[in-house]
């Protein structure tokens, strides 16, 4: 099987231009994580995600076909509730067969409450737990993009595990499987300790496309099966773009690698979603993309997923008074001032690029000089960030780099949302 996946890696360069080919220094080796036990019915790669205001999706994989059932309650080992869900599986290149991918939505759930659960019913041996987001400020988001499965990834995850947060946001490029499907399994096992305890809300990046002309024409096969997000609940018809609410915050997850032109399904959905926002209920607005619209790094310049999407959608976000836009793709950190159409604009969003989670390609170390005035902080280091929404008007952003595996604060700023600025009328 190793030789087969080696041939697939060669096909990557021949048939898949979505994967970047330029050199980046400082990578660490990829990890390989196998199942922790021999029970083919035991839950593997457990992760959770938000569904509406009071529900949670529990997702996991088993080798054997089972009834997708979750039992749960507010007391350990006492499960007063149960729910059934759906399951699926997929083939890739006729040489990889996924396990049974199970998705179960549970709830209604109380806010700011710890729930204990088992995947597969009461006979399952392993108990997990998670905490629901609170129904009042502060709300804490952890943010990191372009994770991968390397030792740098593990360092980032270790730091995040010590950083209290309510929701994790990932702006694309999850496993860096790049057609080699067993890497998806390693990624699921690597993130399980965190992703089974706090909701992970993700969007896709270029490394999720995994499209090979003639051999595998379907795009996003593994991503759509493994990481199902609440798109239907937000009125979207695609798992590649959706929105969700956490108390006081409306988050829009956009798809850089699906159609975004005016008139496209995603564009029309975004228009409708922005019009439906209740700013009294959610005074903060956040958008998440993969390919950044603003970027002073030499990496990933001139790509249509950045430039054309910006041309199509920037004005929509500006008029809606989006407060902050997170992006990945560039393997470095950069924070911009409030910007619109390439210039400072006090009514524009703050753009933050955070594609520095720990992938195998290393860092993008070359920046354009001189530094444009709209770029306030930039550094090519692996790291992660946290946005703490303190109240209806103020939030604090903090980015920490992985400095010899020690998490070190390097950039922080207080943000005031645009709703509080009377001159930025909506």
From TrEMBL:
Pfam families this protein is in?
A: Metallophos, Metallophos_C, Pur_ac_phosph_N
Task: Give the residue range of the signal peptide.
Answer: 1-21
Which terms are listed as keywords in the entry?
A: Glycoprotein, Hydrolase, Iron, Metal-binding, Signal, Zinc
The family database entries (InterPro entries) matched by this protein are listed as: Calcineurin-like_PHP, Metallo-depent_PP-like, MPP_PAP, PAPs-like, PAPs_C, PAPs_N, Purple_acid_Pase-like_N
Task: Using the record for this protein, list the coiled-coil segments as residue ranges, or answer none.
Answer: none
Indicate the segments forming the Purple acid phosphatase C-terminal domain, all copies. 348-407
**Recorded catalytic activity of this chain's protein:** a phosphate monoester + H2O = an alcohol + phosphate
Every copy of the Purple acid phosphatase N-terminal domain together lies at 43-132
- Keyword Zinc in record: yes
Q: Which residues form the Calcineurin-like phosphoesterase domain?
A: 140-333
Q: Which GO molecular function annotations are given, in alphabetical order?
A: acid phosphatase activity; metal ion binding
What cofactor does this protein call for?
A: Zn(2+); Fe cation
Q: What is its EC number?
A: 3.1.3.2
Q: What PANTHER family is this protein classified in?
A: ACID PHOSPHATASE RELATED (PTHR22953), PURPLE ACID PHOSPHATASE (PTHR22953:SF153)
Protein family according to the UniProt entry:
Belongs to the metallophosphoesterase superfamily. Purple acid phosphatase family.
- What is the name listed in the Swiss-Prot or TrEMBL entry for this protein? Purple acid phosphatase
């Amino acid at each position: 099987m190793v030789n087969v996946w080696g041939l697939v890696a060669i096909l990557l360069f021949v048939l898949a231009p979505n994967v970047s080919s330029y050199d980046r220094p400082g990578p660490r080796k990829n990890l390989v994580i196998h199942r922790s036990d021999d029970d083919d019915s035991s839950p593997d790669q457990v992760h959770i995600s938000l569904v509406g205001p009071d529900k949670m999706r529990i997702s996991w994989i088993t080798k054997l076909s089972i009834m997708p059932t979750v039992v749960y309650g507010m007391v350990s080992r006492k499960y007063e509730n149960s729910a059934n869900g759906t399951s699926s599986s997929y083939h890739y290149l006729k040489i990889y067969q996924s396990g049974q991918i199970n998705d179960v939505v549970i709830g209604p759930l109380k806010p700011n409450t710890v729930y204990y659960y088992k995947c597969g019913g009461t006979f399952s041996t392993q108990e997990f737990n998670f905490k629901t987001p609170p129904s009042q400020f502060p709300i804490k988001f952890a943010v990191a993009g372009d994770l991968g499965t390397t030792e740098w990834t593990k360092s980032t995850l270790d730091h995040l595990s010590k950083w209290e947060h309510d929701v994790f946001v990932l702006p694309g490029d999850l496993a860096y499987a790049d057609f080699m499907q067993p890497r998806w399994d390693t990624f699921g096992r690597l993130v399980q300790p965190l992703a089974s305890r706090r909701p992970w809300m993700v969007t896709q990046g270029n490394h999720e496309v995994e499209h090979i002309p003639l051999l595998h024409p379907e795009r996003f096969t593994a991503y759509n099966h493994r990481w199902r997000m609440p798109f239907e609940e937000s009125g979207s018809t695609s798992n590649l773009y959706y929105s969700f609410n956490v108390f006081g915050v409306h988050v829009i997850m956009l798809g850089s690698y699906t159609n975004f032109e005016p008139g496209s399904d995603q564009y029309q959905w975004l228009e409708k979603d922005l019009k439906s926002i209740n700013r009294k209920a959610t005074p903060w607005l956040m958008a998440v993309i993969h390919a950044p619209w603003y970027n002073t790094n030499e990496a990933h310049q001139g790509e249509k997923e950045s430039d054309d999407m910006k041309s199509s959608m920037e004005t929509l976000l500006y008029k809606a008074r989006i407060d902050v836009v997170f992006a990945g793709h560039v393997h470095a950190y950069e924070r911009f001032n409030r910007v619109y159409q390439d210039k400072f604009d006090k009514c524009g969003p703050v753009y933050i690029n955070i594609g520095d989670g720990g992938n195998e390609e290393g860092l993008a170390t070359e920046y354009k000089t001189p530094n444009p005035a709209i770029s306030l902080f930039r550094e090519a280091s692996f790291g992660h960030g946290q946005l703490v929404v303190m109240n209806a008007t103020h939030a604090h952003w903090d980015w920490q780099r992985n400095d010899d595996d020690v998490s070190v604060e390097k950039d922080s700023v207080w943000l005031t949302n645009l709703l509080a600025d009377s001159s930025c009328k909506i």
